[in-house]
Amino acid sequence: MHLLPLHCIPATGALPAPIVSMKQQYLLFCDGSCLGNPGPGGWAYRIWQGPHLVREQSGTEQSTTNNRMELRAAIEGLNSFPTAGDILVLSDSRYLISGMTELLSLWSARNWRSSNGAAIQNQALWQELWRASIRHKVSWHWVRGHSGVPEQESVDRLAATAARSAARAA
């Protein structure tokens, strides 16, 4: 697979140039897919360091939601690092990105309750993701889905293939 120079990513959802130029940073592209909501689902991630694909993996769940698969993809990707790393997580899921950059600290401070007092959905996964992220230096960045970013498109295909596999196994 050819890796598009990241400075060529379209303006909407584009990566800031200083982040892209960090040579030791890993790029973790992750995505989730679900056939029905809930339904059979799949998750996938791909890890890049510079122009090199370091690792990719996907997995399935029989009865899940798209949001759960988005979270699972990030958890599995972060947990795949044997040691702490400098990681830029890229996802087309606003749920994942805003959760990690804006909402997680608020939820934690409110004892995992929303501003209206309701329990946070997927609390166990959010806590698992937080635990997976704290040993790393992680930055979170939203990328517009289906916008021609080859790395995000490829991880989207992997997650969709996993979801179809889960559906066939059901």
List unreliable stretches of 5+ residues: 1-22
CATH superfamily: Ribonuclease H-like superfamily/Ribonuclease H
Structural class: alpha/beta
CATH class: Alpha Beta
| Helical segment count | 5
**Main sheet properties:** 5 strands, mixed
In the sheet with the most strands, the strands line up as: 3-2-1-4-5
Integer average pLDDT: 87
Spatial separation of the terminal alpha carbons: 32 Å
Number of DSSP strands?
Answer: 5
Taken from the alpha-carbon principal axes, the silhouette is globular
* Shape-level CATH architecture: 2-Layer Sandwich
Helix content class: 25-40%
What's the structural blueprint in terms of helices and strands?
Layout lengths: L16 H4 L5 E9 L4 E11 L2 E13 L1 H14 L6 E6 L2 H16 L13 H11 L3 E6 L7 H20 L1
Could you explain how this protein is built, in words?
- By secondary structure, the protein is of the alpha/beta class.
- 38% of the residues lie in helices and 26% in strands.
- It has helices at 17-20, 66-79, 94-109, 123-133, 150-169, and strands spanning 26-34, 39-49, 52-64, 86-91, 137-142.
- Strands 3-2-1-4-5 form a five-stranded mixed sheet.
- A hairpin with a 2-residue loop joins strand 2 (39-49) and strand 3.
- The longest helix is centred in the last third of the chain and has 20 residues, at 150-169.
- Mean pLDDT is 87; it is low at 1-22.
